[in-house]
Amino acid sequence: MEFSAKQIAQFIQGRVEGDENAMVHTFAKIEDGTLGSISFLANPKYVQYIYDTKASIVLVDDSLNFEHPVKTTIIRVKNARDCVAKLLQLYASSLPKKKGIDPLAFISPKAKVGKDCYVGAFAYIGDGVEIGDGCQIYPNVTIMENVKIGNNCLFYPHVSIYYGCHIGNNVTLHSGAVIGADGFGFAPNPETNQYDKIPQLGIVTIEDNVEIGANTCVDRSTMGTTTVRKGVKLDNLVQIAHNTDIGENTVMSAQVGVAGSTTVGQWCMFGGQVGISGHIKIGDKVLLGAQSGAPSSIESNQMLIGTPPVGKMAFFRSHALVNKLPELYKQLNALQKEVEELKKNASK
Questions:
Q1: Would you name the residues annotated as active-site residues?
Q2: Tens digits of per-residue pLDDT, 64-100?
Q3: Spatial separation of the C-alpha atoms in residues 23 and 26, rounded to whole Å
Q4: What is the DSSP letter of 76?
Q5: Euclidean distance between CA atoms 313 and 206, whole angstroms
Q6: Quick one: CA dihedral 167, 168, 169, 171, positive or negative?
Q7: HSE-CB for 320 with a 13 A CA cutoff
């Protein structure tokens, strides 16, 4: 599909500078722009690319000014990055969806599949499964017995959903995601000198509008449910342990790990490799910087970094002092020697 600069400006409420009939059919980074592509410029550090880009249209922030003439067509908006996101969503929604059941898929006679669904080759859908309308289930997806799935879900290849789990509407699971594997429950047995497995009899509940990245695992609970609430976004390689409760609209970057029986509040943001201890509570709107570790509960509305996590400025001040420790150690030794000399002289 092609769109003109005028049509795009109307959709995102922007202002055209240049050829309002310029046409685009794809997206590109500003430095890699080609004829027929649209790009954006929001960071002044990249302003040099605007003069040579081959992109037909570039979205720019209203606040940006250019020192030299610009050849490409410009659309000025309040926030170019946000407008690109809207255009990408529009483009993605316009792409045709697959429909139909591949003859190589296995669907149990005891399962129910809704209208306008796609089920790819070698997908497995077990007894008692219920799938809503408009779902896209790609090849090699495994959906075990008695799983309940809402409408308009998208499961990419090699997703595995264990028995009994509940999935809401508009849920996206990327390749290799595992929903409902056993929680990590073992108890040492002195009599046998080994670990006894604690059966994990609960389920996982994923609410509406959740997106879960590739090779991310959400473990089933020992009893009850592990819950991922509506609007949550989990990156690739995230681990959500048994009996946890992840609050609405919380986002987690790659390699975050949340231990068992922990509650995470709404609108939290965790950077890459954040580690959350078990049996604690994280409040609402908590922001944890990359590689932070939370061994105990955290109150709401805090931005923290480090292990244990501290305030942003306190962390940076402490880190700056750490770099100076060798020099400070030498100074301290020199001062100690001076004090010892003064003591000797004073005793004389």
A1: 242
A2: 889 899 999 999 999 999 999 999 888 888 888 899 9
A3: 10
A4: E
A5: 36
A6: negative
A7: 6
